[in-house]
Specification:
By secondary structure, the chain is mainly α. 71% of the residues lie in helices and 0% in strands. The model has no long low-confidence stretch (mean pLDDT 92).
Amino acid sequence: MEAVNIAFAPATGTEEEWNEAYARLADYFRSYRLHNRIRRTQLILETLRRAAETHALEPEKSPTAHAIEQARGMLRTWLGSIYEG
């Protein structure tokens, strides 16, 4: 199994906002029946890392909004690779 090692230190937003984004992403990925907690945590942390980058550029939107947008984009990319492959 690969190591879980994703640095997450957002420059914008509050700890409370990022915790809310984490909780929403956990629910989002669980809704797709991703039950493996380790894999789900990896996806959440990677999604939050990407959301932190976009939040720094557009801080008027909440971290949760950025996180869900990133998750949806990742899902579209993944599904696209399946259907195009």
